[in-house]
Design goal:
single chain; 203 residues; four-stranded mixed beta sheet; globular
């Protein structure tokens, strides 16, 4: 966003993407894994919609997309976490967890990421949410590039620190690297790495 350094939104995700790619570089995988960074998310998802549309036109089937949306800010203080309107589950009041959001068609992908966290990075708190349809009843669950994949019928999950529902620096000039929890980001990279390895080993 103009006027914001964008450390959490969304350099945090790019850093985790690159770290995950480094973790997986020498791991033999049974399926193709693509690392993609989209532009124009703030402009009605134009970048990811173009990509997902191209996959559908070419007839490509994918296991799913793991989309990173602001994954660098935490706050353990009670009251630091707000609950998005319409979310039908209990949300912790301290903003020190990773949210895993999928739609009904992505339930298996949500479970794969959540299980990877529990098995491989148990110290990382997670909250999983599966919404019906394409998230129309909870609009805040559609605010990232995963919604483009939902639109074209592909499974996708969003991993997020919940952005403005936790981070007071969201879209502001104060969204700087000094405000990020780098240890949290490292844990997120380990979770994604474990999830990808599991998904690539599953027939």
């Amino acid at each position: 966003m103009r006027g914001s350094p964008g450390a959490d939104d969304n350099a945090s995700a790019l850093a985790v993407l690159l770290e995950t790619a480094a973790h997986l570089r020498d791991v033999p995988l049974s399926r193709e894994v693509r690392f993609v960074a989209f532009s124009l998310e703030e402009e009605d998802l134009l970048g990811s919609l173009a990509y997902a549309s191209s996959l559908r036109r070419a007839g490509h089937e994918i296991e799913g997309a793991i989309v990173l949306e602001c994954v660098g800010y935490t706050c353990a203080a009670e009251g630091s976490q707000q609950k998005p309107p319409g979310v039908p589950i209990v949300v912790p009041t301290a903003g020190d967890f990773l949210a895993i959001v999928g739609n009904a068609a992505s339930a298996g992908l949500v479970a794969a990421v959540e299980n990877a966290a529990r098995r491989r990075v148990p110290e990382l708190k997670t909250v999983a949410l599966t919404v019906p349809g394409n998230g129309e009843l909870v609009p805040d669950t559609r605010r990232s590039d995963h919604a483009a994949f939902w639109h074209y019928g592909y499974p996708a999950v969003m991993l997020t620190d919940t952005a403005n529902f936790r981070n007071p620096n969201y879209h502001a000039s104060t969204d700087t690297i000094e405000t990020l929890d780098l240890g949290f980001m490292e844990k997120v990279a380990r979770v994604i790495t474990a999830a990808v390895i599991h998904l690539c080993a599953t027939p």
